[in-house]
Specification:
By secondary structure, the protein is α+β, with helices and mostly antiparallel strands. The protein has 19 helices and 27 strands. A seven-stranded mixed beta sheet has the order 10-11-8-18-15-16-17. α11 packs across α12, α15 packs parallel to α19 and α18 packs across α19.
């Protein structure tokens, strides 16, 4: 192959590859133009009436601009990763404003502290910003009313705004006609605004089409990996294979000989804790990603792997299990009644440990970021869930002020919490400063899995006593996992907010309770993954409920309902209960809602109907991110191999903004939970992650995904979480169904460790 041909191939971008290889011809990308549109954003401030920096748009408030032609431009300050937030929040604002949705434009907000939190995780975008967006829309509506009242010399009470028009019953004007005068009005007091009644909603609660879908299916959407800048170079980074490792020596002679490679740069790591800092590494800089990756393979490096090189899953997991049996390192959290006495008189006592391994995020698009550094200012483009954290991390890494860092948010090809850790953004910024050119850092799939902020491995031991009627009389819990807090500082046991995710706030009515956490040191970067600690806690609680029902010889649904007990708001067992950052008086954990989703999901799944021979039913429920979710799994055993036939899910998440987006997120949660239950596991040896791609870290494939049935409870109270609450009950529902179908009782995930799948 000639040099010219080699360059032609290496410069082929991913969109061109899809077209050249015919992949696009088999789907919705057929004929899509190869446009590389830059992410649009406009700096916003809180001054009403200020002239926008973008032509004929007039700023009404922090999130709204009105054009002289009547177009309404709404800023979305949260990151879009497929959940539809760039549709959901703007449709809330547009509804209150009285705008015509067909005349709305949505732009992506840059990092800006004025927006409040931009950290798009924790299932909180809608629950935290539903009311603020309504107020911003109502404020814009009020300014239009003030303008009309002035123009027509009438009382403001006579003015109505709807369907992109302002009217007093006699006079009517369009938004375009009122734009200039409206922008001159004073921003009203947000707390005194009259919000719409639910019966008057035009968009809230309606299944509007996703505003970004055309860009996605036509191949026009720009993700982090798509960013192209003039004179840009590409970087592929070989990082320390062990947390805390330091580079001892570097031989880059062969790497520099690879065609397209320009230079090799060292990235200086920082002392532990890891936080969001760039990992110690060596970056190969090239004219294209392929050359950078090939050059990286030629590097000859020697590392001081330091203390964490002794970390191995096999011994570490045994230590987790053994920690439950020793008093040293045991921290008693809560005690109520007399647990030991209750065990002595119990009809049945079941004690079991439930294990969940390390998990990786493995989003479709691995981390990618592009940066420019010039004259003390850094500008970055990144698939970031948290542009404000990225801004702070870049500033700290470069030694400049945060206000000298501009962060543009691209679309995210999935995130699941990984892209709220901006270490990869810091890498691009550091290299841009060192090289003096725009630099794009692209992580490979192997980079993504081996250098992830892993979901914590967890061993939970539960001991529960039942009386003759099947009532739970004693509950003893012990949890052992490396805390996420270890990533940011000294932390050898679970933090309070981690304990709040299913360990201390289980919903069962029990007189005698004792809860412990165990001291465990971390050896990997530990981070939050979709649903966080709810995953292992729901697995333990939900699986045990299946075992207890069998021991009591009770129907599982009846046992769940009996164990949850009387209708009440669950009182926190610890005074520090976080309740996902919300006031528990405003967002109570009501058992009536828990029982309602259990009843409904069982009805949808035909729980009480005559059952087909060989089909096992499994039920589980979990409360997380303020939402109630119940799941029923149907499983059949094919020899020793379980096959998941279907998953039924019912969720109560309060007021919904866009039911279609809620349904799709819950569908995704069923698949995500299926992967965790059946296939996924990260293991370590000599301090290193052993998996590198999907051949080792397995996810549910298309032919392995069950039929999925989603139902959503209609509720009028404040919105609750959606993106994460669907995940936790999936694994225990599947485990219970496997046992009901005649398979073994599994207490260790994934199922693939026990059965052929």
């Amino acid at each position: 192959m000639s040099e010219q041909k080699r360059n032609d191939v290496s410069l082929l971008n991913r969109r061109q590859f899809l077209h050249a290889s015919g992949v696009a011809g088999s789907g919705l990308l057929l004929g899509a133009p190869l446009l590389q549109a830059k992410p649009s954003a406009v700096p916003m401030d809180v001054l009403s009436g200020a002239k926008s920096s973008s032509g004929d748009f007039l700023r009404l408030n922090l999130f709204v601009e009105l054009a002289l032609d009547g177009t309404v431009r709404i800023v979305c300050h949260r990151s879009e990763m497929g959940q539809g937030i760039r549709t959901g929040l703007p449709q809330v604002l547009a509804d209150e404003m009285g705008a015509d949705w067909s005349k709305v434009q949505v732009i992506q907000g840059q990092a800006n502290r004025e927006y409040g939190s931009q950290n798009t995780d924790g299932s909180r975008s809608v629950r935290d910003f539903y009311l603020p967006m309504r107020k911003m829309g109502a404020a814009a509506r009020e300014m239009l009313r003030q303008a009309a009242a002035k123009k027509w010399a009438v009382e403001i009470s006579q003015i109505k705004v709807e369907d992109h028009q302002v009217s007093d019953g006699k006079n009517t004007a369009t938004f375009a006609e009122m734009a200039t005068l409206a922008a001159q009005q004073k921003l009203p007091n947000l707390d005194s605004l009259q919000l719409k009644a639910k019966k008057d909603f035009n968009y809230i609660g309606k299944p509007l089409d996703g505003i970004d879908v055309p860009a996605f299916v036509q191949g026009k959407a720009e993700f982090g990996v798509d960013v192209e800048l003039a004179d840009m170079v590409h970087a592929s980074i070989e990082r320390s294979p062990v947390l805390g490792g330091k580079l001892l020596s570097l031989d880059d002679k062969e790497a520099l000989a690879v065609p397209g490679v320009i230079r090799v740069e060292r990235i200086q790591g920082r002392p532990l804790p890891a936080a969001f800092n760039a990992i110690e590494g060596v970056a190969v800089i090239a004219s294209n990603t392929w050359a950078a990756q090939q050059g990286r393979k030629k590097l000859k490096l020697k590392w001081d792997l330091a203390a964490n090189q002794s970390h191995a899953s096999e011994s570490y997991n045994k230590a987790l299990a053994a920690s439950h049996d020793v008093d040293e390192g045991s921290l008693k959290l809560f005690e109520q009644g007399d647990v030991q006495k209750a065990f002595q008189v119990a009809e049945h006592v079941i004690e079991a440990s439930y294990f969940v391994p390390y998990l990786a995020h493995a989003s479709m698009e691995p981390p990618a970021a592009t940066a420019i550094f010039k004259d003390g200012h850094c500008e970055v483009w990144a698939c970031s869930q948290t542009p404000q954290s990225a801004q702070r991390q870049v500033a700290g890494s470069l030694g400049i002020k945060p206000e000298n860092v501009t962060v543009h948010v691209t679309y995210l090809g999935g995130g699941f919490g990984r892209k709220s850790k901006p270490d990869f953004v810091a890498e691009a910024a550091l290299l841009a400063k060192q090289i003096g050119k725009p630099v794009k850092v692209t992580w490979s799939r192997e980079d993504d899995i081996r250098h992830d902020y892993l979901h914590a491995v967890c061993d939970t031991r539960l001991k529960v006593g039942l009386d003759k009627s099947g009532k739970i009389t004693a509950w003893q819990g012990s949890a052992a996992l490396p805390s996420i807090g270890s990533t940011f500082g000294p932390a050898d046991s679970m933090a309070g907010w981690e304990l709040d995710q299913g360990f201390t706030d289980f919903p069962f009515e029990v007189a005698n309770v004792e809860l412990h956490r165990r001291k465990i040191n971390a050896h990997m970067r530990i981070g939050w993954l979709r649903s966080v600690i709810n995953i292992p806690m729901a697995f333990a609680n939900g699986s045990l409920m299946g075992e207890l029902a069998a021991a009591a010889k009770m129907d599982a649904k009846a046992f769940w309902l009996q164990s949850i007990g009387q209708d009440r708001s669950i009182k926190p067992r610890l005074p520090s209960y976080s309740n996902y950052g919300k006031n528990i008086a405003e967002y109570p954990n009501d058992t009536a809602r828990a029982k309602a989703v259990i009843e409904k999901v069982c009805a949808k799944a035909g729980w009480d109907d005559p059952r087909e021979v060989g089909v096992g039913f499994g039920l589980s429920y979990h409360y997380s991110f303020l939402a109630h979710v119940a799941v029923v799994a149907k499983v059949v055993m094919d020899g020793k191999s379980p096959k998941i036939l279907s998953l039924y899910c019912v969720a109560d998440a309060g007021q919904l903004v866009n039911p279609d987006r809620v349904k799709s997120q819950l569908e995704g949660a069923m698949i995500f939970g299926t992967s965790i239950a059946m296939y996924s596991e990260i293991t370590t040896k000599d301090g290193m992650v052993e998996q590198g791609n999907f051949d080792g870290y397995r996810l549910a494939r298309m032919n392995e995904c069950p039929d999925i049935h989603i139902d959503i409870v209609e509720a009028d109270d404040a919105p609750r979480g959606v993106g994460e609450p669907g995940v936790p009950p999936v694994a225990p529902a599947i485990i219970n169904a496997i046992a009901d179908a005649g398979g073994p009782r599994i207490r260790r995930l994934p199922v693939a460790k026990t059965l052929p799948v």
